[in-house]
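Whiteboard transcription, Tuesday session. T.W. wrote the structure tokens on the left side:
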């Protein structure tokens, strides 16, 4: 579970002796009418399950492959044929999906009645069944945080427990952003930044809260700041809300997030639902950008309020913490430095590689 700002996977030199082969398997159309009513597995899993690939995986030899790694719930159907081939198999759970989608359903619950409510219940039930089956079939399970690991163990009782392999980023790729921040005029009014993909409902909810709640609340106390909502697939609701406020920029997809983190910016994350750990927190830390987040937004990351992050829950609390950093450039710099130290210590590619090596030692023992 590693990423850098360009989307590249880690250099092969970081994992000597690892080889890979690949074959592109096109996914069928996503928008199949009534897909939630179809019998069998969850439609997300059905979409990414290819019969020819299933047969191929069953034919693999454990004499050639030491282990197989199956990434996230959408590909979980491939755990069983790999195990049938006698290959030690790891299921890498990016989230605890059952909890994530239950939270999203509860958030939308007041608006879902009748058929929509039934569809949500069936969606969640099938997803939990698929997740339980993947965990049961795998030799080992990875989660990206202690929080998710403990929840996965409580829900599904995996036979060999759950290992924590943290989400990680290429810290070196953020060196220029840190340098530019350090050289920038600290008296420049900070830019508020939120980074995400907005087809993911929790990001849309957080962005709308920033546009419609937190930014107007800042104006009420005399603080007029600019807000950049950065990332692909902004929803119509977001664009309509932003069109009413000249202080809001909705970028859509960008070639790089670095220009937004390299300014005298503050990453503001009013996230109320979600799972796993937020890469946006690690990205801001790596750039030396101070972060204000809900506890949910920082869940699973080694943070302490007032040390390497500021935690806020209500709009009033967010306004208070933003004002604190706007008025104190030295506090902004210190918070950003402590965030960088945190990501360097526990969420670099090197840190993730160490966790992978430790886990694989157990899987192949």
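and on the right, the sequence the group agreed on:
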């Amino acid at each position: 579970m590693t990423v850098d700002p360009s989307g590249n996977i880690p250099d092969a030199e970081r994992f000597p002796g690892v080889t890979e082969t690949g074959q592109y398997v096109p996914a069928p159309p996503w928008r199949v009418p009534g897909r939630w009513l179809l019998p069998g597995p969850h439609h997300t899993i059905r979409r990414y399950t290819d019969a020819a690939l299933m047969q191929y995986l069953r034919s693999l030899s454990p004499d050639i492959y030491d282990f197989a790694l199956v990434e996230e719930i959408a590909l979980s159907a491939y755990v069983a044929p790999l195990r049938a081939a006698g290959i030690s198999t790891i299921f890498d759970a990016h989230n605890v999906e059952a909890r994530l989608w239950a939270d999203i359903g509860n958030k939308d619950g007041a608006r879902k009645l009748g058929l929509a409510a039934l569809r949500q219940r069936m969606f969640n039930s099938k997803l939990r069944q698929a997740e339980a089956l993947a965990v049961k079939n795998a030799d080992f399970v990875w989660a990206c945080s202690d929080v998710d690991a403990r929840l996965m163990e409580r829900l599904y009782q995996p036979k060999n427990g759950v290992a924590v392999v943290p989400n990680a980023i290429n810290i070196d790729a953020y060196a220029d952003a840190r340098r530019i921040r350090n050289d920038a005029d600290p008296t420049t009014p900070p830019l508020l930044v939120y980074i995400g993909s907005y087809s993911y409902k929790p990001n849309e909810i957080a962005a709308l809260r920033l546009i419609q709640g937190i930014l107007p609340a800042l104006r009420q106390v005399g603080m007029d700041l600019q807000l950049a909502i950065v990332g692909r697939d902004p929803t119509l609701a977001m664009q309509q809300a932003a069109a009413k406020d000249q202080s809001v920029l909705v970028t859509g997809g960008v070639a790089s997030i670095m220009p937004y983190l390299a300014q005298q910016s503050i990453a503001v994350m009013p996230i109320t639902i979600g799972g796993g750990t937020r890469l946006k927190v690690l990205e801001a830390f790596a750039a030396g950008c101070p972060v204000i987040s809900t506890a949910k937004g920082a869940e699973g990351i080694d943070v302490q309020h007032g040390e390497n992050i500021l935690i806020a829950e209500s709009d009033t609390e967010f306004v208070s913490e933003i004002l604190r950093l706007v008025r104190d450039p030295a506090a902004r710099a210190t918070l950003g430095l402590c965030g960088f130290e945190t990501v360097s210590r526990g969420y670099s590619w090197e840190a993730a590689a160490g966790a992978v090596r430790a886990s694989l030692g157990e899987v192949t023992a």
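Someone added at the bottom: Residues 2-169+349-363 form a domain with the Rossmann fold fold (CATH 3.40.50).
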